[in-house]
Structure formats: structure tokens, C-alpha cells
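Moderator note: this is an archived Q&A kept for reference. The question asked for a predicted structure of one protein chain; the sequence and the answer are reproduced below.
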Amino acid sequence: MLDYLKKSKFVWSFISRILRVNYSFFWKFRSLEVKSYNDIIKKYFEDEIFLNFFSNKINNLKVVELGCGFGLRLFNLKEQKDYSLIGYDINKKYINLAKKYNEEKKYNIEFCLKKIEDIKLGNDVDYLISSFSLIYVKEKDLIKFFTNNKNMIKKGFILIEYHTPSKSENLSYYVHNFKKIFEETLSNDFEIKFTKIQHKRWIKADHEAYKIIGNVK
């Protein structure tokens, strides 16, 4: 349905303006994209990036994912490392499916229904992760989240997100200037590195995907 609407730039421009007022409304009620548990345990390109990042890290870390969906990233990470994991998402259907699979596998992952800007991390979080979820959060809400939680992150974060230093004409989601956001919120506490991801699926007309790694100074 969305692909059909996007064919008309005028129609999609109008709809996207409505969505941008409250993207959480769209994601709260979005239908499940999975048909079976086989869809939950797939490994995608972004999963490999996260798994490689944590491959040489110690065990017994606490990792929090923003926009965890039905738990794919966290389930794959749990298979590799004995971590304490928490996932946040605003889609109740996703969270319920993640909880059901988590219970069956006895992974002991915590899944929470909450908007990103309302999250208050505990002071024992080692790493924060996110994959193409922050593009649905307004800049002011991202600034709020990082300002409120920067002192709660003990080691760092890894994000896979679209980023641009200039204004994007994209209508489907927000393309943030993360360097600007981090200058306002994290620059005094984190060393941050941006690495462009050369993946054809993620190269757009005026923005591209980046692996953004922040390490506590």
C-alpha cells in the first residue's frame, strides 16, 4: 500500500507531512512483517556489523537496543554472547512476538514497550545499539534522549543510521545530521567515528548509511 502511495509524489508528500507530526502512530500499528520464527532468526547485513563489533568484546556486558522490532538483532547477539540484553520498541505486536520467542528459547532478554524519547536508561548500560530506528525520531527528541542518557552509557554505542551534513529531500523518514546532534549532546564525553557503509541497498539520492561508533572518553 505504501509503495503504491509513494508513486505519486504529491500524495506521498501530503501523507509524509502527517506522519512526520507523529511517526510513532504509524509504527505503533504497523502490521507484522514476519510469518514464522524462521524470519526471526535470519541474519541480515546489519546483523553481521553488530556481531563483528561485539565479537572481541568481553562477556557479561549489558546492551540496550533502541527500536528493537521483533528482536532479531538481540536474538542473534544472544546466540554469540552471554549478554544482558534489553530491547525497546513502540509496536506492541513486535514486542509481544519477541517476548513469546524469548520465552520459548529461554534467552532471558527484556523487551519493553516505550518511545525512544521517553526512555531513561539505568546507570549500568555498557553499550547502546540501533539500526535504522532513529530516522523516525525528531531531532529535538533525539537531543532529549542523548542529553538525558549520556551519563548512563558506560562504554559506548554503535548505530547504523542514515546521516547527512545537509538537508535531505527524502519524504519517508528524517535524515539527521548526527554530527550536529552529537556536538550538542555528546562531544565532551565521547569519541565518535563515522564510517560510510558501501551497501547498494542503503545508498540514496542525497544521503547514505553510516556506521557510527561512540566510545566513552
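Archived answer notes: The chain has a mean pLDDT of 86.
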